Amino acid sequence: MDLSDAKNIVIVGGGQAAAQACASLRLFGYEGSITLVGEEAALPYQRPPLSKAYMKGEMAEERLYFKPENWYQDQNIDVILSMRATKIDRVKRIVEIEHGGELPYDAVIIATGSRPRALPVKGADLDGVFDLRDLSDVERIRPRMMAGQKLVIVGAGYIGLEAAAVARQMGLEVTVLEMADRVLARVTSPVMSAFFETEHRSQGVEIMTGARLASLKGEGAVAATVLADGTEIAADIVLVGIGILPNVELAEEAGIACSNGILVDQDARTNDPRVFAAGDCAKRPLVHYGRQGRLESVHNAIEQGKLAAAAIMGKKRPVEDCPWFWSDQYDLKLQIAGLSTDYDEIVVRGDPESRKFAAFYLRNGKLIAVDAVNSPPEFLASKKLIIAGASLAPATLRDTSLSMKEIAAAAA
Ligand SMILES: Cc1cc2nc3c(=O)[nH]c(=O)nc-3n(C[C@H](O)[C@H](O)[C@H](O)COP(=O)(O)OP(=O)(O)OC[C@H]3O[C@@H](n4cnc5c(N)ncnc54)[C@H](O)[C@@H]3O)c2cc1C
Asked: Does this model's pTM top 0.90?
């Protein structure tokens, strides 16, 4: 459906994908009305620093925002904050918002993101128990992050481990509880898990794997976490990082196809040609992997914001990059390219003990992903090699006398 004559575009959600969609629509020449409805009080901002520099107090709040307020005014974008969209009426082509407001649309982009999975145990509502998703979460946690305080982090995913690193550097006593038998079990290989576990332990973080949380204890405020085997760990603060759930309800209730994510095609379009979805909430074709999936990353939100805007404006589809992600812990920069699920061979280049190495993931000899620790050339070269579907010999990848440039050139 050609929507290039659209007069009203409504963007539901006020995060990374929404901000990108606004910018891309104007960049692609859209001159009609854009209304962004976001339920948070803040203008669209970047979340990654919330578990890194901003949490540590090393980044000013203004630097979190993608654009200052006057940019939205200059671009003639109506930004409605602290407001929830409650319904998409696809027959009347209206987005309903709280307090009875109605926003007519010719096209709508759903960029509602995701929300933290709730901790399903007794005591989860005690004072001192926090999620880490929004700016407002950090505003509540940070005043409590004082040296000597006991912080228990539930879940050893990237966000939990980043927060552990920050808290250790701020002098807190940190324990990480992980139900699986290794940290980062959902997202990376045993070799990477072992590296990060060793790193955190050497920094003084207590890591307990195979630890099943049974309840949280305390009189009004949390005082301890209790494991299924009865072990109690004292806690002044508990941070919960056990994954996220996509915010699909608005789409689902409007009859849009969803399956652990709002289903979209390569143009970020749902099964309704006027409705698009982008970012954490969308399940998209992963073009370099021949399957569908939901990605939780900045790169994905930006890419899909652009794809939706291009499709609405009838522009040529922007070329899809390979998925990428990063994580900062202490002085370690982990850069991830591609998706390592389904690898059948792993090749380590460099020595983990040097804190500068990369794990390459191969499937049938083809490079499908890399985890690069303090190794930008490995990351950058791999992005291109993954897209090219390059086959690489493990011995070549392991050979550190060859630069990544030489390896990439030989594979071309
Ligand atoms: C602490 C933290 C650290 C991270 N670190 C990294 C990192 O290092 N690298 C990386 O690539 N990614 C990182 N991510 C993930 C990345 O930030 C997300 O993938 C990205 O923000 C997704 O963008 P989005 O626009 O889809 O969703 P969001 O940024 O979550 O924005 C969605 C917005 O929509 C609003 N909303 C939801 N429902 C409604 C409604 N009905 N009406 C109105 N508004 C609504 C929400 O309140 C929210 O403001 C991190 C995330 C967190 C939380």
From this structure: yes
